[in-house]
Design brief:
Layout (H helix, E strand, L loop, with lengths): L1 E3 L1 H5 L8 E3 L1 H6 L3 H9 L2 E3 L4 H14 L7 H13 L2 E3 L3 H9 L4 E2 L10 E7 L5 E2 L13 E7 L1
Parallel strand pairs: 1-2, 1-4, 2-3, 4-5
Antiparallel strand pairs: 6-7, 6-8
Bound molecules: zinc ion.
Length: 151
């Protein structure tokens, strides 16, 4: 079973036998051609389950990807977690959280990430790591930015 992101539809790359997605992803697909394409492929649409969404959110907080993920992204990962299925997406944050949960990922255009990473908040001025909810550096007052680091 393949759980697919909207990019696979937009790029006409939904080429798997058994595919599933969530209603929130279907809602992202508004243009007529893509909707027509979607009607031609063998795609099931299922709601994600709360218990898996909670697990995904906890993992995304741990990896720091929570800031990069939409509600639909969280639900998509939750669906993949429920079905223990391969997740098809080009989104690095989705891939990162999915991999942290032990799921398989497949890229659409881009190759999947080979190493997992996490996001850290780092001061742009002095480089100090700061807590997630802090917006300015407590040492020098500079802006705090998200940075991707290897685990
Ligand atoms: Zn600083």
């Amino acid at each position: 079973m393949y759980v697919i992101d909207s990019t696979a539809i937009f790029l006409r790359k939904a080429v798997y036998d058994k595919m599933v997605t969530i209603p929130e992803i279907v809602d992202e697909i508004k243009d007529e051609k893509s909707r027509f394409y979607m009607s031609l492929i063998n795609l099931k649409v299922e709601n994600s389950k709360k218990e898996f969404e909670i697990l995904v959110r906890e993992t995304a907080k741990r990896t720091g990807d929570i800031y990069k993920l939409s509600d639909a992204d969280i639900k998509l990962i939750a669906k993949a977690l429920e079905l223990k299925a391969t997740l098809v997406t080009d989104d690095y944050s989705i891939q990162n959280v999915a991999k942290s949960l032990g799921l398989k990922c497949e890229g659409i255009i881009q190759k999947g990430i080979t190493k997992s990473f996490k996001w850290l908040k780092i001061c742009r001025g002095c480089g100090k790591k700061v807590d997630n909810n802090i917006k300015a550096c407590p040492i020098c007052g500079s802006e705090v930015v998200l940075r991707r680091v290897k685990r």
